[in-house]
């Protein structure tokens, strides 16, 4: 796991960043509508094309749950998941291509990922497609990590860094659960979908928790090696 940057803020700084995660919290001066984060520049506007795509993606979460638990229209539910995957790719691509990487977008994207994973596992558990221990293990890990955020803030950091293990876990899970939904039937296709779905799920859950353990260990090291930032009064 890449180390969390321990670069300290100069007195009077108004923006705190985790350099590894490229996430900022706090205020910025000036009226340009842009905040410099590492080597990137983020815009503070809400209504950008990537953000609209992220909002459309979020709107699909309750639609997916209704399709799975109401009429049990599994093919339409799979279509919602596929559309979510396409918009997930497009919002990141367009944000970089159009120079519209935004503070809101940096929040919406991981939130949408987590909500889709939560919606899918809850929906599949209520349909008895996956056991409840699977459905509970994923949000439990997120709750434990969110509990570390106040500790990070005591050292002047706003968020946990994202690294390849966490991304690999999310990738596996976002493939696993649609396959398990497709496997809830009979025939060769359903059997193959179930086999591959559980393979992705096992790897995804293991990587999800392993990434969480690494996050917690890195936070522990940060707390031991980094002093609390000095308090400065606003001008």
UniProtKB/TrEMBL annotation:
It comes from the Bacteria. One of its GO terms (biological process) is glycerophospholipid biosynthetic process. It is found in: Membrane. Pfam families: CDP-OH_P_transf (PF01066). The chain crosses the membrane at residues 107-126, 164-183, 195-217. The keyword Lipid metabolism applies. Coiled coil: none annotated. GO terms for cellular component: membrane. Keywords: Lipid biosynthesis, Lipid metabolism, Membrane, Phospholipid biosynthesis, Phospholipid metabolism, Transferase, Transmembrane, Transmembrane helix. InterPro entries: CDP-alcohol_PTase-I (IPR050324), CDP-OH_P_trans (IPR000462), CDP-OH_PTrfase_TM_dom (IPR043130), CDP_ALCOHOL_P_TRANSF_CS (IPR048254). It is a multi-pass membrane protein. Belongs to the CDP-alcohol phosphatidyltransferase class-I family. This is CDP-alcohol phosphatidyltransferase family protein. It comes from Nocardioides agri.
